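Why do we bother with holo predictions? Because pocket geometry can differ from the apo form. Keep that in mind while you read this record for magnesium ion.
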Amino acid sequence: MNQEEGRTGWTRNLGDRKMQTVIIVPGTPGTGKTTFAKALAKTIRANYVNITRHVSKHRLYRGVDRERRTRIIDVPKTRASLKRELGTMHGLSVVDTHIPEEIIPREIVKQVFVLRCHPRILEGRLRRRRWKASKIRENVLAEVVDSCLSAGVKYFGWRRVIQIDTSRRNTRGCVASAKMSILGEPTKRIKIDWISKLEREGLLDRYLK
Ligand SMILES: Nc1ncnc2c1ncn2[C@@H]1O[C@H](COP(=O)(O)OP(=O)(O)OP(=O)(O)O)[C@@H](O)[C@H]1O
Ligand SMILES: [Mg+2]
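The structure, written out:
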């Protein structure tokens, strides 16, 4: 059985149409995008596109953010370059990025898996990276207020968006549920409300004060 014969659901006609189809994995830094996207690409035999490597290889920077000590991506150039690169690939590609709405053309995206993580667990993951407290706070707060989810739904539309909670399941479990959705199996959409959960756990002040 070859790759195309094994496909069902919305991937079924990929071979005939010779089109590029992209799966996007957005999420707050630390939610597990790269871990998940690589594992998903391997499981469904798709191309994995590493944005950091792409930007670095083609030198798509416009300057340096001294405060954050990072290089600033040239968004229009990155968008054009990725459109070209993704256009040359056949079959499925998986791309992880926390700013898909800025750098990925909406029309080539088939499905969006927004990764989520309980703010307390995310804080722990970011602390282990030894990030500055202000940077951790800024990112955890973005997760608390559903920043990536809102941007994804606004840009891609809610039908294409599915949330995956990486604080409750390991990568294998997360990939298994994404694969079911790609294969067209009915997928239960989870609801995430960190504000209510944190309030119940007595942790809301920690992140919102
Ligand atoms: N499902 C999971 N369960 C437990 N830990 C996980 C899971 N997914 C990822 N992690 C862990 O979380 C950390 C962050 O993962 P990863 O680097 O993939 O996140 P990211 O979203 O790509 O971050 P960034 O945006 O900074 O690149 C890693 O230590 C990884 O091992
Ligand atoms: Mg990453």
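The pocket of magnesium ion (ligand 2) is lined by residues 33-34, 96 (CB under 6 Å).
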